[in-house]
Design the sequence.
């Protein structure tokens, strides 16, 4: 059984529960990336509910999804080193959370390796690791640390193990002591006699359901515009026009009182508002494409960001799942985050 030890006070055979929040991001996708985690150990003396560790690390080049998995793996390693027994992981990457609980398949070859590594680390905890998806506004500290690391292009915060596997200097570690007192720990009878020396008030960690109904809504619209791709070696470097078909898919598990996830008409209106920003324009002069090529890849990412802002302001129970862009009936790009 894991126990708190080392720089964190005398060893006590107690069941240590913690919440790990992780986040990762990429500026360019792929591009300069960063990962961050916040570890809060519950009920340990004066640290009940407080942040114990919070680290950020920069990655020279990675995608958003690779950065998300990197943050998870790094946070799990630090939780193990701390001596956490029972862990809940919270992250705002719905894709990663659903893959970790087995709801989504992992198809990307690079993510398959990271996913398997994360599963192997979770198997080293004495109790099953639980996973919960949270919205971005409830994951601000991990996001801040990831961005701080990207800004510094180096480590940020405090951690026991660096992202590269290095040991943190002892001077950088938080000092933790366990207050003496009688035991008050909810645990199975077979383990109750093992506890000693610490007064703990451990809240129950809610286990998310791993099997549930998932609903997806997709709407499609189009816009007409002209552009020229700077640096392209073919005819696309010349001024030309397209009718781009755009599909947006949202997903969620919670229906309203009449059995609707999100009204199709509302989603159509959201998409139409976004596409109106670019319809019948010369994209090379239209923000943000005045400073980036208006490729299908960049368009999908921009449309995702605009749709996400609109949905976040109106509804919390649905999340973007995919943005699709057709340049022709036989050429489609799909973007997920």
Sequence:
């Amino acid at each position: 059984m894991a126990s708190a030890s080392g720089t964190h006070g005398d060893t006590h055979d107690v069941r240590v529960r913690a919440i790990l929040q992780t986040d990762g991001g990429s500026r360019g996708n792929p591009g300069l990336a960063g990962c961050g985690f916040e570890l809060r150990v519950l009920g340990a003396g004066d640290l009940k509910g407080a942040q114990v560790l919070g680290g950020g690390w920069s990655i020279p080049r990675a995608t958003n999804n690779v950065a998300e998995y990197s943050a998870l793996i790094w946070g799990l390693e630090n939780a193990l080193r701390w001596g956490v027994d029972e862990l809940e992981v919270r992250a705002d990457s719905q894709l990663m959370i659903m893959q970790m609980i087995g709801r989504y398949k992992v198809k990307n070859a690079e993510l398959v390796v990271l996913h398997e590594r994360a599963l192997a680390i979770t198997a080293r905890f004495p109790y099953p690791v639980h996973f919960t998806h949270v919205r971005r506004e409830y994951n601000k500290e991990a996001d801040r640390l990831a961005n701080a690391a990207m800004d510094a292009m180096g480590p940020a915060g405090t951690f026991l193990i660096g992202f590269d596997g290095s040991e943190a200097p002892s001077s950088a570690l938080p000092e933790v002591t366990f207050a003496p007192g009688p035991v008050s720990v909810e645990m199975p009878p077979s383990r109750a006699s093992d506890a000693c020396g610490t007064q703990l008030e451990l809240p129950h960690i809610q286990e998310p359901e791993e099997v549930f109904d998932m609903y997806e809504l997709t709407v499609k619209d189009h816009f007409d515009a002209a552009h020229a791709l700077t640096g392209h070696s073919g005819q696309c470097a010349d001024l030309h026009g397209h009718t781009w078909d755009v599909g947006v898919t949202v997903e969620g598990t919670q229906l309203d009182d009449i059995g609707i996830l999100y009204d199709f008409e509302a989603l159509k209106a959201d998409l139409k508002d976004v596409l109106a920003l670019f319809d019948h324009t010369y994209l090379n002069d239209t923000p943000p494409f005045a400073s980036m090529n208006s490729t299908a890849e960049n368009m999908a990412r921009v449309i995702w960001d605009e749709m996400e802002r609109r949905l976040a302001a109106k509804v919390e129970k649905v999340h973007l799942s995919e943005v699709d862009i057709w340049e022709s009936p036989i050429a489609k790009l799909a973007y997920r985050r």
In short: The two ends are 37 Å apart (CA to CA).
